[in-house]
Amino acid sequence: MKYQPLSSSLYIKNREKFCYKLAESSVAIFNSNDIMPTNADGTMRFRQNNDLFYLTGIDQEETILLVAPDCPNPNMREVLFLRETNEHIAIWEGHKYTKEEAEATSGIKNIQWLSNFNQVFNTVMALCCNVYLNTNEHLRAGVVVETQDARFIKECKEKFPLHTYHRAAPIMHELRGVKEKEEIEQLQIACDITEKGFRRILSFVKPGVTEYEIEAEYLHEFVRNRSNGFAYQPIIASGASACVLHYIENHKACVAGEMLLMDVGAEYGNYNADMTRTIPVSGRFTERQRAVYDAVLRVQKEASRILMIGTNIQDYHKEVGLIMQSELVGLGLIDQTDIKNQDPAWPAYKKYFMHGTSHHLGLDVHDVGTMHGPIKPGMVFTVEPGIYIQEEGLGVRLENNIVIQEGKGYFDLMRNIPIEAEEIEELMNG
């Protein structure tokens, strides 16, 4: 792996928090993600199941975690199962975890090969009443491929129909929504790498440069700083393409006088940055571009200020909408008649700002965590308002990543990434 692993103390602590939430006489099972096929004998790059990674730090396929905190046999309260390596695998695929390395990474003392799983699991099931199984319950998940977790649920219920089954996902959402200090440090590294990429392209962008060349500049800077690359498919959208929220073709040439919207982030140690910046291709904002840019920046700053402990995210989004409404009136994009006649379910401002302002950030770019309960210290959010004026071929979005702090408002993980219009112009023309 390219990244520097975190201490096993984090994963020990995470498992303790998880086990505290379980019912008495319980066992919980977490499976690694599959290696997904492409075509012929090709596969996609492996990405560990984030819940398993959160609880173990193990970044390898064919891994199973079993936790049974009340098991009468203390040796079976935490067991980690790994794919057994051999000389053939080492030659063709490279090094895999040894038992000693897996213990050092996870803090789990009982490390076994996968071939022993059924025997151990059968024994633990005979001693437990409640079973916690994992599923992807993200609010926006579109699950169409059967996962290892899904296959295991079928097998487990068929083999042990009389146990009481529970969902692990609500517990994991609650725990992962609040970040530990070590996790925030990983997120900071991802943001710092993202900053290096952005500063690199500020001196690179000029009329005639293509979006894919800009994408390549980011990737070069990310990987050379020990990132696996982009945290998500990058959006490099010049001109009118910035009004397409998930534009990922990145194939056009940048034209003088247009704006360039870049939604990119580096991944580091499975944690993700999520940044958006919008810059003038020619290095200077026009008067209209600057007016729209400043309006978005004011909303971004005010939204960061009101995203605080105890706030309900749904109420927060409504309040940001009112702030944006005022800015759009100031830009002449909507007027009081539009507001008076608006559909409450789709306010007038939604014509130019149609997406949400914030989402959780962490091991997933759109991380798990409550979207209805009160905000807590340690939660990490994006703040990303935008204005998209299709009739002018102009789209501006600005996005930073912030940590909600106890009694201190927020801490901006992207505080060092240029965002003020004057600094952008200065760096592009320096």
UniProtKB/TrEMBL annotation:
Any one GO molecular function term: manganese ion binding
Gene Ontology BP term (one): proteolysis
Catalytic activity: Release of any N-terminal amino acid, including proline, that is linked to proline, even from a dipeptide or tripeptide
SUPFAM superfamilies per UniProt: Creatinase/aminopeptidase, Creatinase/prolidase N-terminal domain
Pfam families attached to this UniProt entry: AMP_N, Peptidase_M24
InterPro entries associated with the record: Aminopep_P_N (IPR007865), Creatin/AminoP/Spt16_N (IPR029149), Creatinase/aminopeptidase-like (IPR036005), Pept_M24 (IPR000994), Peptidase_M24B_aminopep-P_CS (IPR001131), X-Pro_dipept-like (IPR052433)
Protein name: Xaa-Pro aminopeptidase
Source organism: Algoriphagus yeomjeoni
